[in-house]
Amino acid sequence: MKNRIRVLRAEHEWSQAEVADRLGIARQTVNALETGKYAPSLPLAFKISRLFGKAVDEIFDPNSVEE
Amino acid sequence: MYETSPRKNAPASSLNPTDRAKRQYKIRFWIAIAVYVAIVFPVSFQVNHTAGALRIALALTPVLPMIAILIFAIQMMRGIDELERQIHIEALAIAAGVTALLAITYGFLEVAHFPRPSAWFTYAVVMAAWCIATPFVSRKYKG
To answer: What's the pTM value of the predicted model, to 2 decimals?
Structure first.
């Protein structure tokens, strides 16, 4: 699923490890999210939305979801 | 002060939940293995010098730390993050399928008078298949 996590992370000048710690997940998971290889669960998507102060659909592109 | 990344020697309280769960599991796993090693040899020796219910109870004693490891592994799986959990569950499903396939294949070979394997066979196959499947499954999520 396409998303803006990498862009938002760069805006905050956070490393993947920092984002991982703030979300309580593994750094590899942050990488999988950024590259669109992994679509997060709804609770994690809301955590990401709270972390960056953006709505979920401002971060994740709903049109990129595979049918 | 905010932790920027999980450090190897950082106190458990400063780690994020997924790292804490993995570290906790490693510590508990090695304690259980130490207990297993401490009891398996005396028990193996003593089991042939007893009889009846005591013999069965003694033979089953090494299973206790193994039960503990299973409980610790379940706790670890619940504590790690959702992607790692998904990878392990997928790898375990593959391992279960591979084991079932090998068991049924060998079952047919038994019809051709192959020797009956030990019950250890199942354990070894599940663990080996899980170890082999995990990196293949996790490759799918690498950028």
So the answer is: 0.81
Cβ of residue A11 closer than 8 Å to a chain B Cβ: no
Residues of A with CB below 8 A from B80's CB? 26
Q: What letter would DSSP give residue A49?
A: H
Q: What is residue B119's DSSP assignment? A: T
The single-letter DSSP state of residue B142 is -
Contact of B143 with chain A, judged by CB distance below 8 Å, is answered with yes
Tokens of B18: 């997924």
State ipTM: 0.88
CB contact under 8 A, A21 and B6: yes
| CATH topology (fold) of A5-55 | 434 Repressor (Amino-terminal Domain) (1.10.260)
Query: Taking Cα atoms as reference points, which of A6, A7, A46 lies closest to residue A23?
Result: A46
CA distance A13 to chain B (A): 12
Is A5 in contact with A36 (CB distance < 8 Å)?
no
User: DSSP labels for B26-79?
Assistant: HHHHHHHHHHHHHHHHHHHHHGGG--HHHHHHHHHTTHHHHHHHHHHHHHHHHH
Cβ–Cβ under 8 Å, residues A54 and A14: no
What share of residues in chain A are helix, strand, coil (percent, to 5)? 65, 5, 35
Tokens of B136: 């293949």
Q: What is the pLDDT of residues A17-64, one digit of tens each?
A: 999 999 999 999 999 999 999 999 999 999 999 999 999 999 998 887
Q: What sign results for the dihedral spanned by CA atoms B22, B23, B28, B34?
A: positive
